[in-house]
Amino acid sequence: MLVSELAANATQHSESGRNPNGQVRVEVTIEDGVINVDVVDEGSATSTPHVRARTDVPSPDRCGLQLVDQLADGWGH
């Protein structure tokens, strides 16, 4: 669920989604029994990702990183 939200965020809000040849990579590594998943996009020319405070969210479709933050905290990561 977290990976799909991050990938959706990357394609919707980064150069990866604005560029017809844009790319989003999902990188999975396992070390010492710990699985690490990174979603890598082409960034943004105007902003860096940040978790918005609930009062700053103008609509439900603009709270993806808040969802990721809360779920990861709830799962202890």
TrEMBL record:
InterPro entries: Anti-sigma-factor_SerPK (IPR050267), HATPase_C_sf (IPR036890), HATPase_dom (IPR003594). The keyword rRNA-binding does not apply. One of its GO terms (molecular function) is protein serine/threonine kinase activity. Residues 1-23 are annotated as: Disordered. Residues 3-72 form the Histidine kinase/HSP90-like ATPase domain. CDD domains: HATPase_RsbW-like (cd16936). Keywords: Kinase, Serine/threonine-protein kinase, Transferase. PANTHER family: ANTI-SIGMA-F FACTOR RSBW, ANTI-SIGMA-F FACTOR RSBW-RELATED. This is Histidine kinase/HSP90-like ATPase domain-containing protein. Residues 9-22 have a biased composition (Polar residues).
